Amino acid sequence: MATYRPDSNTLLKSDSILEYVLETMVYPREHERMRELRLITQRHARGFMGSSPDQMQFFSMLLKMIGARNTLEVGVFTGYSLLATALALPDDGRVVGIDVDRASYELGRPVIESAGVAHKVDFREGDGIAELDRMLAGGGGGGGGGEFDFAYVDADKQRYGEYHERMLRLVRVGGVIAYDNTLWGGSVAMPRDTPSSSEFDRVVRDFMVGFNAAVAADDRVEACLLPLADGVTLCRRVK
Hints:
This protein is an alpha/beta fold and 239 residues long. 41% of the residues lie in helices and 18% in strands. Strands 3-2-1-4-5-7-6 form a seven-stranded mixed sheet, sandwiched between helices.
């Protein structure tokens, strides 16, 4: 029987397995600036919101495999994932990052600059849906859609359905969209009234169950659900 783990950054059976993964595959090749920003993020009062290092390693490899140049991210926090993306992109690549919280991003901005990739990062402060709509209308430095190779959504979970519809217009056919936290501590596979889960957890759990089911039935994408970090729903746009 699976155990609900809301306070863990892995769905693996034990944290020791995650430590093995990190110590064997992630930390030995971790960029010095990625390590610096990871530690800054961990010390933040809301450090639990930071993306996991193994997930960022996977995204970095994925971006290189698909030859991404233009990417989009909603939900930036300290910029840890922005830095991972910027380091993976070619010198003429760019990542547009959107978040309502500039203060947290400013903690990571000096590290991004120190890494020599600040010229690839376009941070925009504001509501994710509003900014995406502005981009689709051609007023946000975009051409109105279909120009991004990759998009990563790690923002307000209850609006994932709204993000999905917009990402399908902004990301090119053949491009990839990743949604974070889609297993929500493993709660999606457990009864709604699982002990130790809060009312908020139950609400988000219901949204994730519905979102994953909708993506699975969406013929506009080819999708898979990865038990990586807190769950990543990965979509390749096919039409």
